[in-house]
Automatic annotation (TrEMBL):
Family statement: Belongs to the tRNA pseudouridine synthase TruA family.
InterPro entries, per database record: PsdUridine_synth_cat_dom_sf, PsdUridine_synth_TruA, PsdUridine_synth_TruA_a/b_dom, PsdUridine_synth_TruA_C, TruA/RsuA/RluB/E/F_N
Domain Pseudouridine synthase I TruA alpha/beta: 134-233
Single GO term (MF): tRNA pseudouridine(38-40) synthase activity
Active site: D56
Keywords attached to this entry: Isomerase, tRNA processing
Upper taxonomic lineage: Archaea, Methanobacteriati, Methanobacteriota, Stenosarchaea group, Halobacteria
Main function: Formation of pseudouridine at positions 38, 39 and 40 in the anticodon stem and loop of transfer RNAs.
Protein name, per record: tRNA pseudouridine synthase A
Source organism per UniProt: Halosimplex rubrum
Gene name as annotated: truA
Binding site for substrate: Y110
GO process terms (BP): tRNA pseudouridine synthesis
Catalytic reaction annotation: uridine(38/39/40) in tRNA = pseudouridine(38/39/40) in tRNA
Length: 273
């Protein structure tokens, strides 16, 4: 068995997990394995296959982790030879036959970038109020009002926020996350930060009563979110320098492209004032 770290830009995909008739990251992984003759045609998935998490449509990853039975020659670099440029393997580790990429993870860390310019442009976001909301959301709670799931809603959540230029970088860590929980936690913190809700709403979402309709919490947009890290005790991932360099080049080019698009959009906006 071998485990691989995958980084991907989630915006071209409808999430990680395979779905009928739409493009997903998992489809790209399995297509690459078939092209490499690691996965035979007609076989659903590799032996022992599992993934660390099921990121939503548009969500990116730095350290999504997949593991499966594979020949020794399949390095991260070899994997990349058939993966699309938007998906890059960059590290791997030999693991035992009993390893399970989902169940053996002891923590998962997500990072979300909230736009909060210091000059108050755009939709003003009060940094202190965001921090207060996240502090109150931290700890062990039943987050049933922040996920569509009916089970697995009790989580022990760690939250931090750091300013990076015009962004507040929210870091959320837990052993696991129910569906949409990360985005709804961020959505609630942003509501409080914009003054649309008070801190009392945090207490209300923890109450046993269901909160629905306008009183509920909508998930924040997916594209500023990334699965940042997944921790496995005793597993030492070895970075493939060639594969890592390839990933840096790909994401560097994408960052430049997005900056350029932003500049053009900004100039169009300014010309219409």
């Amino acid at each position: 068995m071998r485990a691989y770290r995958l980084a991907y830009d989630g915006r071209p995909f409808r999430g990680f997990q395979r779905q009928p008739d739409v493009s997903t990251v998992e489809d790209a992984v399995f297509d690459a394995l078939r092209d490499l003759d690691v996965l035979a045609e007609g076989v659903d998935k590799p032996d022992g296959y599992a993934a660390a998490g099921r990121t939503d449509a548009g969500v990116s990853a730095r350290a999504q982790t997949v593991a499966f039975e594979t020949p020794a020659w399949l390095s991260a670099r070899a994997f990349n030879s058939e993966l699309p440029a938007s998906v890059r393997a960059w590290a791997s580790a030999d693991v035992g036959t009993e390893f399970h990429a989902t169940h053996d993870a002891v923590s998962r860390t997500y990072r979300y970038h909230l736009y909060a310019p210091r000059d108050g442009g755009g939709r003003p976001l009060d940094e202190v109020r965001v921090r207060d909301a996240l502090d109150r959301l931290a700890g062990e709670h039943d987050f049933h009002n922040l996920t569509p799931d009916d089970e697995g809603t009790r989580r022990d959540l760690s939250t931090t926020v750091e300013r990076d230029g015009d962004f507040l970088v929210v870091r959320l860590e837990a052993g696991g996350f129910a569906r949409q929980l990360v985005r709804r936690v961020v959505g609630l913190a942003a509501e409080v930060g914009r003054g649309e809700s008070d801190l009392g709403k945090v207490d209300r979402v923890f109450a046993a009563e269901e909160i629905e309709g306008p009183e509920g919490v909508a998930p924040a947009a997916p594209y500023p979110l990334a699965l940042w890290d997944v921790a496995y005790p005793g597993v030492a991932f070895e970075v493939d320098e060639d594969a890592s360099e390839s990933a840096r080049e790909v994401f560097g080019a994408r960052a430049t492209e997005f900056l350029t698009r932003g500049r053009v959009a900004g100039e169009i906006r300014d010309s219409l004032e």
